[in-house]
Amino acid sequence: MQNGFKILTPRDMQHNLSKVSDMITTQPFIRWNNNIIDKVFLPFEREIIKKIPLIQEPLEDQLMWPYSKDGTYTVKTGYNVLKHWQDSTANGSTTNSHSHIWKKLWTLPTIPRNKTLLWRIYQQALPVRSALNKRGIQCTIVCPRCLHKEETINHVFMECHRAAKIWFGSKLGIRFDNNHRNFTDWLTHNIINLEKKDLSYIASIIYGIWYARNSQVFDNKDIDDRVVIDKALENMLEYQMSIKPEQTIQQNLSNNNQSRPNHRPSNRWTKPNQGTIKGNCDANLSVEGRWGLGVVFRDEDGEVLATATWELPGYNDPETAEACAIYHAIRLAADCCFQQVIIESDCTNIIRKINDPQIRARSYLGNYVWGINCNRGNFRICLFNHISRKANGVAHVLAKMAHSEPNRVWLEEAHPNIVPFLLRDLVH
Ligand SMILES: [Zn+2]
Fold first, then answer.
1. N or C: which end of the chain has fewer CB within 10 A?
2. Could you give the number of structural domains in the chain?
3. Per the domain annotation, does 416 fall within a domain?
4. Domain RNase H type-1: where (predicted)?
5. Which of 217-221, 314-318, 424-428 has the highest mean pLDDT?
6. How many Å lie between the centroid of ligand 1 and the Cα of residue 203?
7. Is 65 among the domain residues?
8. What's residue 1's pLDDT?
């Protein structure tokens, strides 16, 4: 199945199906129970199921994995299947319009859940109330957002005045008129014709509308239309900014020490890969003639391993102070006997210089770069990465704190001042 082997039909409580055998009848011979299948599954999935040939020998229901000889799932076979599936969808091995649509969706620069949602709308496989009702599920059919009309896919995403406000208020300023009667047709047209960037934005808005709808249904929470609009844009930008640095880190790790600077810093803090310790550092120049420096080291679970503050006499040059913070950070990492570290700073220039083999000690900041590079030998892997200020919140607080609590090291405990910022990094 093109949708990743996942059944898109919403769960049906009425027929209480839990096993494949519940959908098979044995009289007069073993075959699919078309009656049940037609009632429970969405049309396109009915057809797929009915095409699966059944054997006549009775077999107990069991979890299966068709891609290894003994039916046992292994990471390797799982990976191979996914890879094959990705390749075949990316190459467009079939030419029908389904695969064309799927191929375009699959390669969209957006969060996977947005792609799946678009695909479900395209397949008319969304559990809106009227669809549930048609399949015999007792529930109200009224739209939970406007409490006015029947909830269909068209209504949720196009006709409902809540949705209309969101589309119009978005950067696209879309206003549906009488030419747009069918949301799925409109979406399909856009999937085929729009550039991926614009389509990603549309996908974010659609997800926002659906999320707001679900919050109303399941949490009885009314999300303001403005919030939906802002969140959609924010999510899209955040995703686009986050994919690049992640890839660079991956590349860096596979190239061992040959790290390269990131040109597009991530807006959010991310946990390091397994076995790697991430250190974030920052400098503060708010007290005249003194630098406050701070660093926090966290592991792959986001747990704090060490934090430290330093206060030193310093002059008014933020970049030099930032370089000094990195220098202190790498020395502390060596003292803690970390083996594999990534050190992050929000200062582009110093990160670029550290990663540039041409930099001489005598150049501006060169002495710090030299000192930092001398310490690299203490580690199996040691990388330097540029991130945005937003992603460096904990270190920022520590650097400020350095003036009131100077020259301290905390091991495996978090100072209360930084706790809210640690949490913020983890939930983002
Ligand atoms: Zn409505």
1. N
2. 2
3. yes
4. 281-402
5. 217-221
6. 19
7. no
8. 42
Sign of CA dihedral 78, 80, 81, 86: positive
Among 238, 258, 289, residue at a domain's last position: 238
In this prediction the pTM is 0.42
Note down the domain range covering 203. Answer: 95-238
- Residue 119 alpha carbon to ligand 1 centre in Å: 22
Distance 227 CA to ligand 1 centre (A): 17
Residue showing tokens 């996908």: 203
Å from CA of 213 to ligand 1 middle: 9
Q: Tell me the CA–centroid distance for residue 162 and ligand 1, in Å.
A: 6
pLDDT for residue 171 is more than 90? no
pLDDT tens per residue across span 30-81 = 788 888 888 888 777 787 787 776 766 655 666 666 666 566 677 677 777 7
- Cα of 204 vs centre of ligand 1, distance in Å, is 19
Rounded to the nearest angstrom, the distance between the alpha carbon of 385 and the centre of ligand 1 is 47
- Cis, peptide link before residue 406, omega less than 30° from 0: no
Residues 418 and 290 in one domain: yes
Q: Over the stretch 203-212, which tens digit does the pLDDT of each residue have?
A: 999 999 999 9
pLDDT per position as a tens digit, 280-296: 999 999 888 889 999 99
Helix, strand, coil abundance in the chain, percent, nearest 5? 50, 10, 40
Ligand 1 centroid–CA 329 distance in Å is: 55
Cα(164) to ligand 1 centroid in Å equals 10
Verify that 421 and 302 share a domain, yes or no.
yes
306 and 178 housed in the same domain: no
Distance between Cα 139 and ligand 1 center (Å): 16
Instruction: Note whether residue 341 is domain-resident.
Output: yes
Residues 229 and 313 in one domain: no
Q: Ligand 1 centre and the CA of 155: distance in Å?
A: 6
Residues contacting 28, CB < 8 A, separation 6+:
none
Q: Within this chain, do residues 284 and 419 fall inside the same structural domain, yes or no?
A: yes
User: In terms of domains, do 290 and 401 share one?
Assistant: yes
Residue 167 belongs to a domain: yes
CA angle 200, 112, 199 (to 5 degrees): 15
Give bridge partners of residue 307 from the DSSP assignment. Answer: 296, 410
Tell me if 61 sits within 8 A of 83, measured CB to CB: no
Q: Where residue 130 falls among pLDDT bands split at 50, 70, 90? A: very high
